Amino acid sequence: MISVFGSANMDLVAYVAQAPERGETVTGHRFRTIPGGKGANQAIAAARAGVQVAFLGAVGDDGFGAELRAALTEAGVDVRGLRQVPGSSGIAHIVVDDDGGNSIIVVPGANGTVTGPSGEDMAAIARSDALLLQLELPMEGVVAAAQAAQVSRVPVYLTPAPARPLPHELLGAVTTIVPNEHEAAAITGVSGPEAALDALLEQVQEAVITLGSDGALYGARSGERLRVPAAAVKAVDTTAAGDTFVGALAVARAEGRGMAEALRFASTAAALSVQREGASTSMPTRHEIENALS
Ligand code: ATP
C-alpha cells in the first residue's frame, strides 16, 4: 500500500494557441475542469499503475470538493483520510498552449489547513510501503508526515514542487527526491543536471531529476548513476508528467523492482501521459504501461 499525504485541487484548464502576456486578453479554444493537485495526481497515478493507495489530505465543502472525492474514489483510491473542511477546495488555474507547454497558478484553499498528519494518518503511513509527498501543503505538515514515515522506516519520495527552500528536518527524512530540472537548480543553486544531482546527493540518499523529453537522471549516494531516455512521442499536454512518473516509480519500487527497471516503468507511464490531455485524465493504467513496455 502507498500513502500520499498531499494536495487535491480542481484544475481549471484553458486551452489556447499562445498563453497571454501581462495585460493581454486572448480567446481560448476550450475549457475543462479536471481533478488534479500534485497529491491527488500522484495518488491516481499510483492507483492506476496497480497498487492500493490511501490519500491523506483535505478538500473544501464546495462542489469541487465533492468532485475531487468522487474522482479519487473512482480511480480506486482509499479516501477515508480525505477530510472535508469549511471553505473552498484548492484550485489550479492552468493555461495549456498549442505546443503542449503549460503555466499554472495554484490557490491552496483547503490544502492550506493540512498542517500535519492526524492519528489515523500516522497509522496509515506506518502501514505503507512508501509515502509520497509534494510541497502544495503547509511545510510543517509535509515535515511531520515525512518524520512519521521515517520513524516507521517507510521510504519517502518527495516531489519538491512548487520549489521552495527545504528545511533540514525534511531532507533528513526523505529517501528519494524527484525534482524536475528547474526545481533541482532552484534547490541546489547549481545549474546543469549532473552537477545538481551531485549537490542533491549531499543532502539525500537518492535523487531522480526528470528532464522532460530528455528523460531522467538517477543517482544514489552509493555512487550508482543511471540515465533513462524518454520515449519519442508527440506530447499534447505535459501537465502531471512528473506526477505520473513519481507515482509509477514508487509502485515499481514497492513491488521490489530494481531501480533501472523501475525507472523504465516510470518513464513509460509518463510518456503515455503526455500524449493525452489533463492531469488525472491522462494517466495510464497498469495494462497500458505493461503493453507499452513490451
Ligand atoms: P509537469 O510539471 O508538467 O508535471 P515535470 O516538469 O514535473 O512535469 P518533466 O521533467 O517535464 O516533469 O517530465 C517528467 C517525465 O515525463 C520525464 O522524465 C519523462 O520521462 C516524461 N516526459 C515528459 N515530457 C515528455 C515528452 N515530451 N516525451 C516523452 N516523455 C516525456
From TrEMBL:
SUPFAM superfamilies, per the entry: Ribokinase-like
HAMAP family named among the record's database cross-references: Ribokinase (MF_01987)
UniProt: K(+) binding residues: 237, 239, 273, 276, 278, 282
Binding residues annotated for substrate, in chain numbering: 9-11, 37-41, 136, 243
Lineage top rank: taxon: Bacteria
EC number: 2.7.1.15
Free-text comment on the cofactor: Requires a divalent cation, most likely magnesium in vivo, as an electrophilic catalyst to aid phosphoryl group transfer. It is the chelate of the metal and the nucleotide that is the actual substrate.
Main subcellular location of this protein, as a coarse class: cytoplasm
Gene Ontology biological process: D-ribose catabolic process
Domain Carbohydrate kinase PfkB: 2-286
UniProt keyword terms in alphabetical order: ATP-binding, Carbohydrate metabolism, Cytoplasm, Kinase, Magnesium, Metal-binding, Nucleotide-binding, Potassium, Transferase
Molecular-function GO term, any one: ribokinase activity
Protein species of origin: Nonomuraea terrae
Protein name: Ribokinase
